[in-house]
Specification:
The protein has helices spanning about 95-100, 115-130, 135, 160-170, 245-250, 270-285, 335-355, 375-380; strands at about 40-50, 60-70, 80-90, 105, 110-115, 145, 190, 195, 195-205, 210-220, 230, 230-235, 260-265, 295-305, 360, 365-370. The protein is an alpha+beta fold.
Length: about 400
């Protein structure tokens, strides 16, 4: 499939991987973003305050909240088929037990820092109670996931509040998506460069029509020496200016975690969604990571097709001949192109999180340098990856 013209910069003007000419396989959607899946919205609350020495509770603050709404705000409470996969469980994604049991999600998904899961969980409940009281009158098991931003952020300071979680849901929109140091990705690092939020999509042709697969990552993983771009192992060439790994003095250099959300409009069973979630690590591996013990890498995939076929609400009355649910789904033998789409989009999402970024200094003067674009391009040109 040929490449189409997609935005090479994010709304604030920072470049993406495509702007640097990095070759990326597959056909992206119109924005190469998870929002290319119709109905999916992304919103952020970004908290950047203060500088200097850490004082717990006072900052500096470099954190936030990301909200992903599978069927928009009006679709909250409508069940989507879903599947969850933990590549490495040194992390948290609430609601995973219910996803495994029921094979569905019906609420906004929030991503934040490791010590802010609680207020985000409460924020989803409060938003639903305010806007969808009939749904909140039953039971709610929200999905909130996290990665660690304690190198740059006053992570123990309780800076993320319920109001920030609600604001991220209210801000969620379609179209182009801001990337880099925004939302839950604000204080995150990837391959010891400034990391954070990244997204991409792929279009899968399926005979009579096309489907979209979108990936959103909160990228906070990998050691510098591992970094690989378009198959080129360039991490060792960019070993200079590595204050984060110097700070940990030989400690868990690949630590931090990665949360990945996969969305598609292809009709899938819950087990097939789980199979998509299992492919995200293959996309991460293309960027070099071997999967650190201290990196909680947890992934969730959902399908917006067959809306509410898997709803788990309280039933009313006795069963009748209409008391059945029905689902279309892609045959298992035709899933390979969807797996490929996840891998390709996950790889690009990592690169976008790295490239749509700039240096950040946080607590105690800790600094995370941005991936140097000129050095990256020069290295790829010298290897013939990018044309001279």
């Amino acid at each position: 499939m040929s490449q189409r013209t997609v935005p090479t910069t994010i709304p604030t003007g920072k470049p993406r991987a495509r702007d640097l000419g990095i070759p990326l396989p597959g056909t992206p959607g119109p924005n190469s973003a998870i929002t290319d899946v119709e109905g999916v919205l992304v919103g952020y609350s970004t908290l950047i305050e203060g500088a200097g020495k850490l004082t717990v509770g006072q900052g500096p603050v470099r954190t936030g909240v990301t909200a992903i709404l599978p069927l928009g705000r009006e679709g909250v409470g409508v069940a989507c088929a879903a599947g969850y996969h933990s590549f490495n469980g040194n992390g948290e994604m609430t609601g995973a037990s219910w996803i495994e049991e029921a094979g569905s999600i019906s609420l906004p998904i929030l991503i934040t820092n490791t010590h802010a899961v609680g207020p985000c969980h409460r924020g989803i409940i409060d938003w639903v109670a305010r806007h969808k009281p009939d749904i909140a009158n039953q039971w709610l098991l929200p999905v909130v996931a996290e990665t660690w931003d304690g190198y740059l952020n006053d992570i123990n300071g309780s800076h993320v509040t319920v109001d920030h979680a609600i604001a991220a849901i209210d801000a969620a929109a379609g179209g182009q998506v801001e990337e880099g140091s925004v939302g839950g990705g604000t204080g995150m690092n990837c391959y010891a460069f400034k990391g954070g939020s990244g997204t991409a999509s792929r279009v899968v042709d399926y005979g009579h029509r096309s489907y979209t697969v979108g990936v959103f990552l909160q990228a906070n993983f990998g050691s510098r020496q591992e970094l690989t771009v378009a198959g080129a192992p360039i991490g060792r060439e960019l070993a200079n200016d590595n204050p984060m790994e110097a700070y940990f003095r030989g400690g868990p250099t690949g630590a931090g975690s990665c949360i990945g959300i996969v969305a598609t409009d292809a009709p899938l069973l819950p087990g097939q969604c789980k199979a998509l979630a299992r492919r995200v690590p293959l996309g991460l591996a293309r960027t070099g990571t071997a999967g650190s013990h201290f990196s909680g890498d947890i992934f969730l995939a959902f399908s917006t097709a067959n809306p509410d076929s898997l709803n788990g609400r309280f039933p009313q009355g006795v069963p009748t001949e209409q008391s059945y649910s029905h689902m279309d789904f892609i045959p298992w033998g035709r899933m390979d192109d969807f797996y490929t789409a996840v891998v390709q989009a996950a790889e690009e999402a990592v690169l976008n999180a790295l490239i749509a970024n700039q240096d950040m200094t946080g607590r105690d003067g800790n600094r995370s340098p941005a991936l140097p674009h000129e050095k990256l391009v020069a290295s790829l040109k010298s290897r013939g990856v990018i044309g001279a």
